[in-house]
Design a protein that fits this description.
By secondary structure, the chain is an alpha+beta fold. The chain has seven helices and 15 strands. Helix 1 runs antiparallel to helix 2 and helix 5 runs parallel beside helix 6. The N terminus is likely disordered.
Length: 271
């Protein structure tokens, strides 16, 4: 599965390196989860731990060992430049706040792009040993089984998931509450889990029907957004245009309820 001889990039090598890196880094996360860890802060709220750094270092070690010419964008280490057009986009621990509180919802996210086009994505939940994975135009998988989005067609019967930025409350461009208030009146329920990459995967597997969030970084969405699309879902920005890795908002859904979600998000006055 997930092989396409017509693609002009080495699918199997990329997949193998991503899997090896994720599994190895996952062991670091599991080991740290069982003990006290050192915490520091990026600003006044955002956490970073020794485990974030150790996980990212391990992922980079695997990538650079096989693809030394590729660039890497990591949440903690920033950009490692390479001479090629290929780039890996990694989040070594998505859900750091959950992790430090021993709330069991966090993951590793690894995306691979060439010339700005995300071609492969992997999200690994080490607690549940779940590997979500997608190759562009080849579908989405969970532990080697194909997954697909829900078929729910009624927003009123939909379960959505979202996230709230850790930015200061006075930053209106990252205030999700007005959107939450509008959508919460129209749907069956909304959850807030604390890991955008896993939220996207839960859309892809049909556990939730839609997701939106403001102010995410490329490493939060690179892998998960591809997994949603390859599972038959849809992603966009708030204006229903193509979602870019730098878009200020991402909206993801099973595709059926997407336009209705967009209409409600755009009905929020003053934003």
């Amino acid at each position: 599965m997930m092989e396409n001889s017509d693609l002009d990039w080495d699918v199997q090598s990329v997949r193998r390196v991503a899997r090896e890196a994720a599994l190895s880094a996952g062991n670091i996360l599991l080991e740290g989860y069982s003990r006290e860890i050192r915490i520091s802060y990026k600003g006044t709220i955002d956490l970073v731990t020794e485990i974030d750094w150790a996980s990212e270092k391990e992922i980079i070690r695997h990538i650079r060992g096989r693809f030394p010419e590729h660039s890497i964008l990591g949440e903690e280490g920033g950009v490692l430049a390479g001479p090629g057009t290929e780039r890996w986009i990694i989040d070594p621990l998505d859900g750091t706040t959950n992790y430090t509180h021993h709330f069991p919802f966090f993951c590793i996210s690894i995306g691979f792009e060439s010339e700005g086009d995300v071609l492969y994505g992997l999200v690994f939940d080490p607690l549940r040993q779940q590997i979500f994975e997608a190759v562009k135009e080849e579908g989405a998988m969970l532990n080697e089984s194909r997954i697909s989005v829900s078929r729910n067609s009624r927003l009123s019967q939909s379960l959505l998931v979202t996230g709230f930025s850790s930015s200061k409350p006075e930053d209106p461009e990252r205030d999700n509450l007005p959107f939450f208030n509008q959508l919460s009146r129209k749907v069956q329920g909304i959850r807030r889990t604390g890991s955008a990459a896993l939220d996207l995967c839960y859309v892809a597997m049909g556990a939730v029907d839609g997701f939106w969030e403001i102010g995410l970084a490329p490493w939060d969405t690179a892998a998960g957004s591809l997994i949603v699309r390859e599972a038959g879902g849809r992603t966009s920005d708030r204006k229903n245009a193509r979602h870019e890795l730098t878009s200020p908002m991402i909206v993801a859904s099973n595709g059926i309820i997407h336009d209705e979600m967009i209409d409600i998000l755009n009905s929020v006055s003053g934003l």
